[in-house]
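> Could you send the 4-diphosphocytidyl-2-C-methyl-D-erythritol kinase prediction when you get a chance?

Sure thing. Input:
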Amino acid sequence: MALKIFSPAKINLFLHIIGKRSDGYHDLQSVFRTLDFGDWLSFGLTDTKKPLITLTGAEGLTKELDQNLIVKAVTLLAKHFPNHAKPLIIDLQKHIPTGAGLGGGSSNCATTLIALNQLWALDLSLQALIDFGQQLGADVPFFIFSHFHQQDAIVCGIGEILTPLKLPSARYLLLFPQAHLSTAQFFAHPDLQKNCLPIPNIGSRYDDYGNTMTDAFFNVFEPIAVMHSPAVALALQYLKSRQVFTGTTARLTGTGSTVFLPIPDNIDDAMLKHWQAAAPCPTIMTQNLY
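Output:
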């Protein structure tokens, strides 16, 4: 039995920190949107004499292969269900940049949990998969949730409070500055805004953050990323120079380094190709997955 599953990237349409919890984690409020841009993962069962996992395509993504979230997902489920665990061959076709704020590692992890639930015949519920995902990373539950609901989500808490959200279709121009930003350092930054007021009725206000960015919707990490990375600052400024044509607002996703601009229907392919050719770093055009 073999499976090939798409592992999508995500963007944050906004990202607020509501406060810091007693356990040291931060309560967030955000909207996560999955894209039709992402990785592919192929899974196959192999000879029982082989190692539990043979992973290709992930070389160089982490210092040690066992630090990869794909491997961690396999190891976690094998520990809990040793009688179901069978050796696997997994191939990763990687397209999502690492350290880009697009959730690539978390998406791969979620995809692995979903695949093993089928390949190992675990028959786990959605909530059980989400609970395992939460042990592996804050963004992993969203990707599991989104896969099963075929929707984007309002994300709160530390990533575990998920509410499905149906948004209008949209195109996005993504720029990939050649910068790797430290999430841990950004969360510890003294200038980070950590006391945003929770925004009510997000589902009824999608127009505010779907295209334009009002004062109520922003990414708290954006000013810090711009301050620390000239490459991010340049890419964001480039997209902002196009806002006069789009009427939309450029912004950072996650803790960076990717920046994006929603592209309305009145911008044709010829103009987009010109914008991409003139950009200061690699780009792609993408759209929502769901």
